[in-house]
Amino acid sequence: MEYIQLLLGFIVLLFSGHYLVKGSVLLAKYFKISTLVIGVTVVSLGTSAPELFVSLKAALFNHPEISIGNVVGSNIANIALVLGLTAIFNPIQVKKSSIVIDWPIMMASGILFYIFILNNKLQFYEGIIFLTIIFIYVFWSIQNSRKKEKEANNNQIVKTSSLWMAIVFIVLSSLGLMFSSTWLVNGAKQIALNIGVSERVISISLIAFGTSVPELATSLIAAFKHETDISIGNIIGSNIFNILGILGTTSVVKEIPVNFQEFKTDIFWMLGISLLLFVLIIPLKGGILKRYKGLILFAIYCIYIYSIF
Fold first, then answer.
1. Helix or strand or coil: residue 153?
2. Which of 40, 68, 263, 278 is most open to solvent, judged by the fewest CB atoms within 10 Å of its CB?
3. Are 184 and 16 spatial neighbours (Cβ–Cβ below 8 Å)?
4. Residue 288 in contact with residue 92, Cβ under 8 Å?
5. Which residues pair with 48 in a beta bridge?
6. Given phi > 0 = left and psi -120 to 50 = alpha, else beta, which region is 226?
7. 56 and 250 in contact (C-beta within 8 Å)?
8. How far apart are CA 241 and CA 282, in angstroms?
9. Stretches in the chain below the pLDDT threshold 50
10. Do 32 and 146 touch, CB atoms closer than 8 A?
11. Rounded Cα–Cα distance for residues 210 and 81 (Å)
């Protein structure tokens, strides 16, 4: 039964994540936000929604290992697995703003997370700090984008009906995410008990992969359509949202106990892979994430998964 729960959770999660992204993009276009900022903010928020629902459910039902493991594992999977596979299929052109603005925020949020959990818990006031930073980041990104769009006179005309369609997509997909996250957490918890592995291992591998499926689908589709702004922006933005938005929200709702020693190695992997991404996408102007670089990232993900088992 638990395997059916897990599979059903994955399937509903995938479809819900897909339509949440679709609704989010329609909404962003309606308010005339650029493609890159759509990727970094709106699409990232949409594709991070599965992690949010799973982490909240896990924390509320006293499974903190799943909350933390889901976020750390997703951040590793987003870069090494999702960006790696996307670059293998279609090399990704990287814009300067992704490197000089978005990447430093992603790296800083990871380091701040590491500092906050040194005392083996993520507290209410730390969640407030996370949420304040993410609010400022999103607000600045959107305002800056709209200003540039206005200066370039590049206004997009979208029918009013698209707004209603966006709202329908967002509401229905959010309901799907709510139910599927419950099935996913319950199924994973039972499987972990059955096969004798820790919730950390299940959450950081299987659940993290499942909640990263929307990012994978979105990035691959964007790459095939040559919308590479969304591909790289979606991943960096999702990793920022995962730490600041998801763990921020979860720790505000309920303080999260964290076994620092248990997750220390995984966090080093997360920070190390984030640093490697920076090396792979320089120079600051005209950087390209080529196929061989995608293979490097994918190989590192395989090594990481092998090491935790």
1. coil
2. 278
3. no
4. yes
5. none
6. left
7. yes
8. 23
9. 156-158, 160-161
10. yes
11. 12
- The string of DSSP letters for 10-21 reads HHHHHHHHHHHH
Which ranges of the chain does DSSP label H, i.e. alpha helix? 2-30, 35-37, 44-60, 64-76, 84-89, 96-97, 103-116, 124-151, 160-195, 199-202, 208-224, 228-240, 248-253, 260-281, 291-308
Cα-only R_g, the chain: 18
- Cα–chain-centroid distance for residue 181? 15
Residue type, 92: I
- Confidence (pTM): 0.79
pLDDT given at position 79: 93
Amino acid at 77: A
Cα–Cα dist 164/66, whole Å: 35
DSSP 157: P
Per-residue model confidence (pLDDT) at position 139: 82
Domain ranges for the chain: 2-308
Distance CA 42, CA 28 (A): 7
| Number of Cα atoms under 13 Å in the Cβ half of residue 164 | 3
Cβ count near 129 (within 10 Å)? 15
CA distance 244 to 14: 23
CATH number corresponding to 2-308: 1.20.1420.30
93-78-221 Cα angle (round to 5): 55
Residue 206: DSSP 8-state = I
3-state secondary structure of 122: strand
The answer for residues whose C-beta is within 8 angstroms of residue 230's C-beta and 6 or more apart is 35, 36, 38, 39, 43, 218, 219, 222
What does the pLDDT read at residue 218?
A: 66
